[in-house]
Structure formats: C-alpha cells, structure tokens
Amino acid sequence: MEIDEYIFSALEAINDKWTKHASGSDAEAEKEGAIEKLKEEIALQKAQIISQQEELMLQKDQVARQNGEIAMLRKTVQKIQDSLARVITPSESIAQCAADESLTVLLADSEDTCSV
Fold first, then answer.
1. Contact predicate 48/54, CB 8 Å
2. Structural domain that includes position 19
3. What are the tens digits of pLDDT across the range 21-74?
4. Which of 5, 24, 87, 116 lies in the 20 to 30 Å Cα band around 69?
C-alpha cells in the first residue's frame, strides 16, 4: 500500500492534471461548486422574477383604476355635450334664423322666436 502511495505521489509530481482526473475528488468538488453557483444564480433570478411579477400586478391595478377614471370622464363629457346641445342661447337662435333665408326673425317681449 505504501508503494502505491509513492507511485501516486511521483505521478502527481509529474502530471498534476492526470492525478486530479484519476483521483476524481477534485473534479467532483469543482462540479459541486459549479452546481452550487448555478443554484444560487437560479435562486437570484427567481427572486427577480417574483419582484417583477409583483410590480406588474401593481401596474395592472393602476391601469385598471385609470381605465375606470377615463370611463367616468367620458360619461361626464358626454353629459356636458348633451346638455350644451339642448341649450340654445337667444343669440344662437337669432343667428340660426338669419342663416336660413326662409325664416323670419321675430323679437317679442325679450324672447327670440323663429317662424316660417
């Protein structure tokens, strides 16, 4: 057994790479180290993905709230437009009547009316 150890020591001194490959323990340690590094990197990437997913969910909620606000604004603007379309001021009615040659503008008791 001692002779075997002496021979292995001599071979190790001659060719260090061959003895590391033959012993296998260093190669396995390197593989385990590489695997641990990969596991750490994967864990870090998973944490980043989770963080990004949470951020996306917050942004999605914010967009949904903004869409609701936009819908309310659209309804309000439509109501304002509808109410403005219904209200015709006396000056607008006079201008409308004057634009139509077939209508005559009659002013009576501070009310403007159009007649044919």
1. no
2. 2-88
3. 555 556 666 777 888 899 999 999 999 999 999 999 999 999 999 999 999 999
4. 87
d(CA 52, CA 44): 12
DSSP letter assigned to residue 49:
H
- Return the SS3 of 10: helix
Sign of CA dihedral 101, 103, 108, 113: negative
Instruction: Tell me whether residue 28 is in a domain.
Output: yes
User: Considering the entire predicted model, what is its pTM?
Assistant: 0.43
Per-residue burial over 76-110, b = 16 or more CB atoms within 10 Å of its CB, e = otherwise: eeeeeeeeeeeeeeeeeeeeebeeeeeeeeeeeee
- The rounded distance, in Å, linking the Cα atoms of 87 and 56 is 46
Interatomic CA distance for residues 71 and 64, integer angstroms: 11
Assigned domain for 112 exists: no
Q: What torsion, rounded to 10 degrees, do the Cα atoms 33, 35, 38, 40 define?
A: -70
Query: What gap in Å lies between CA 49 and CA 43, rounded to an integer?
Result: 10
